[in-house]
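Notes from the pairing session

We agreed to fold both candidates in a single pass and log them together. This is the raw record for the first candidate, unedited. Please don't reformat it; downstream parsing expects exactly this layout.

Candidate A
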Amino acid sequence: MIVGIPKEVKADENRVAITPAGVIALRDHGQDVLVQAGAGLSSGIDDSKYRASGAQVVKSAAELWARSELVLKVKEPRPSEYRFLRPGLLLFTYLHLAAEKTLARELVRRRVTALGYETIQLDDHSLPLLAPMSEVAGRMAVLAGAWCLHASMGGCGMLLSGATGVKPPRMLVLGAGIAGANACQAAASMGADVTIVDRDVTRLRYVHDILGSRVATLMSNRASIEEELRQAHLVIGAVLIPGARAPRLISESMLTSMQHGAALVDLSIDQGGIAESSRPTTHKRPTYVRHGVVHYCVANMPAAMPHTATYALTNATLPYVLAIAEHGVLEAGQRDPAIRRGLNTYEGHVVHPAVAEALRTEAHSPWD
């Protein structure tokens, strides 16, 4: 199979879908690899390293997409790339189709077989290809939130760690998954006053076990969220429902009850965001202020740390890429339920139930 790695075109996206070590692994399994010129430069990987690993470097995106049978990306195709989508193409990337309905319809219309990193799911419900980026984003969210609290950014001017004789600001984390747990760990190590909210007591117990009394845990319900929001100086949204739109946990009225100069870092923005006031931002223009609350809603946060993120991502995706390239998506899905759960569209149909629900259509599985 010919595997293609295009250069990412999303604003401020600096990651690349594979490392030279990943190319070597694919070549060792009999696959050919095309890499678009300059695709890895922002991650510290120049074209010569890809050539040395056995990849063919091609100049244009059009040539790469046309020649590739399986295209690996980091972020979902942008409108400028829709013209490259075609029947029979295999696409493997972060898709977030519940929040990208136009793209979902294009994939269906153009009969693309598309798998989402974020919907590859193990039997224990964990998300192995989302986990490394959630880890990076969770830790980055604390740094971004601390920056948003700067008075120069419109924040309340409180240092996240506090100071001798001065209380630290209160931080609220919504969601105790990998991103939320990593945000808690980073914030607690800085001395912040942290509360984490989730509806899964098992996840809350996990956070308590690793961080103890440094983080308060709280069961999620509307009343508890409203109360915590009124007291919070920094809120990190880290709620995920695989394949589906993020639940709107913060309404406009709830936002107005928050303290002036508070900050909201919405890690769920690529799934639509957890606040009614959330809208995607970029690394160049990461923030805006609404109702006195500084919003940070960058949809590809790990792209700011492309070296770490690229290597972490390839470590996670490579086993699945090898399986799909060697066996094809149907046999690979038959062999591995995680791959089967990751399929979003196939031959003009929506496959993933959560995506089908978001598009108000029926899901059709090729394995039924």
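Candidate B (folded immediately after A)
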Amino acid sequence: MKNLKMDNIRDYLMTNDIKPSYQRIRIYEYLMNSYDHPRVDEIYKALIDEIPTLSKTTVYNTLNLFIEKGIIHMVTIEGTEVRYDVDISDHGHFKCDVCGKVYDFKADIVEIETNLGESFIINQKDLFFRGICPSCSVKN
């Protein structure tokens, strides 16, 4: 799904009941081509030169709409660090303690068992690991 063209993104947004404004298309396109789970500030800074009328509020509202429609996930790392992920498949995340980069990894999150009992309804499962990535471990 990475590297969709603008026309395809327009169609994808429309299929998900999202009006495909230029700003929404560009924000989604940025997410599609960003492998590091960007924060709002990073998205805003990357697009402001191209879209001078863009505001951080628009970025927040657009991301919230995408989440509501189920086409992206919000990834909360360390409580206050919020990032966004266009990969909505079940997978885990690894954050490097040295460089701060966040990596995706395959994980069978659906099969993770809990002792919560049948009366609990689980709406979302997140799996996070922290440590040192291969690039940073070679430097040390």
